[in-house]
Write a sequence for this structure.
């Protein structure tokens, strides 16, 4: 395969193998989850990319990581995604939005019981059944709003220590009910959400799952990815879970262990896998795709440092390289990446 080989995702065809992973534009939204800076241009400029995953958006006001994160819980949010969808569809990019509940990591203190609370030093409670049902409904509502806005799908955030990751990880989940204990039980909330979204949105709607691998047992991930595939996930965007626990990787593998996690997961699912982390140069992306280490490559900071990264990579031109100044993660000088052209 080549970087520009099309790939089937669910019922849709993606024009190439390059993905823009979700990247929060910090402070570009207000408390109501409405954008304060238009994202039409931000995403539109990158629409040569095959699949664009719009940054994390809260399924409810209180589910967000910060109070200036995008929202997707109300009709009032539809317009902002309509604009993004149009800008990306102009060049036939597929575009989906990541939907998230941050759990204990949400900005007002949240609920959840686990050893995880020590790490975050927060007081926590166990979600009760009614609260769990409400959260499932919120996820489905967000997916329906995304569909109404004309997006091609959603990505359910199951990684990085947010709510679903807190449920799937035995390090955090100490529940003794149907949502705790066995792998099947710990994945139940994610599985229910995926099934409910599929049921509500139909077959022609992409469901991606951001999968937190090795959290901490790889054997658990293998079961989990199979269960999620059966539940209706179309594509897996593989990243880390609560903590980053390294895998042993062969000494001749030249890329990051997080991309290697993607490779290991690819062996256990029939659905396309997206690998991520530190892919800054087109040669790295080509190496991973051409050697079948992954189905798709996500280029995060690379695409922030160079909005034309995808065109340049596909046309063998030099790209601007991210030099890890972290201005995209922390608000420095009004959040400007000095590499952006
Ligand atoms: C500024 C910034 C914002 C991010 N926002 C999100 C997010 O909304 N959701 C998510 O799952 N990951 C998020 N990430 C992680 C990226 O999706 C990606 O996994 C990470 O940047 C590694 O890829 P890279 O080395 O190509 O940048 C963010 C990363 C950065 C740098």
């Amino acid at each position: 395969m080549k970087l520009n080989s099309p790939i089937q995702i669910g019922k849709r065809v993606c024009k190439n193998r390059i993905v823009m992973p979700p990247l929060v534009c910090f402070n570009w939204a207000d408390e109501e989850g409405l954008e304060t800076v238009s994202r039409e241009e931000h995403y539109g400029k990158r629409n040569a990319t095959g699949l664009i995953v719009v940054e994390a958006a809260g399924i409810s006001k209180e589910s967000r990581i910060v109070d200036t994160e995008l929202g997707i819980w109300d009709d009032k949010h539809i317009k902002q995604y309509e604009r993004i969808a149009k800008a990306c569809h102009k060049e036939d990019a597929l575009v989906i939005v990541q939907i998230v509940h941050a759990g204990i990591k949400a900005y007002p203190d949240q609920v959840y019981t686990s050893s995880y609370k020590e790490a975050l030093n927060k007081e926590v409670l166990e979600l009760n059944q009614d609260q769990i049902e409400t959260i499932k409904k919120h996820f489905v509502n967000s997916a329906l709003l995304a569909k109404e806005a004309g997006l091609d799908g959603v990505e359910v955030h199951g990684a990085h220590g947010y709510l679903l990751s807190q449920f799937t990880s035995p390090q955090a989940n100490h529940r003794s009910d149907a949502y705790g204990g066995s792998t099947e039980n710990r994945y139940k909330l994610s599985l229910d959400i995926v099934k409910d979204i599929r049921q509500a949105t139909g077959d022609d709607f992409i469901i991606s799952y951001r999968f937190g691998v090795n959290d901490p047992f790889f054997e658990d991930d293998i079961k989990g990815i199979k269960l999620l595939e059966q539940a209706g996930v179309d594509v897996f965007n593989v990243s880390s879970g609560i903590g980053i626990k390294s895998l042993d990787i062969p000494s001749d593998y030249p890329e990051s262990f997080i991309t290697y996690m993607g490779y290991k997961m690819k062996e256990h699912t029939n659905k396309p896998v997206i690998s991520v982390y530190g892919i800054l140069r087109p040669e790295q992306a080509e190496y991973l795709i051409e050697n079948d280490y992954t189905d798709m490559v996500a280029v995060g900071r690379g695409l922030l440092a160079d909005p034309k990264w995808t065109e340049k990579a596909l046309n063998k031109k030099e790209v601007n390289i991210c030099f890890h100044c972290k201005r995209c993660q922390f608000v420095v000088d009004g959040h400007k990446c000095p590499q952006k052209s």
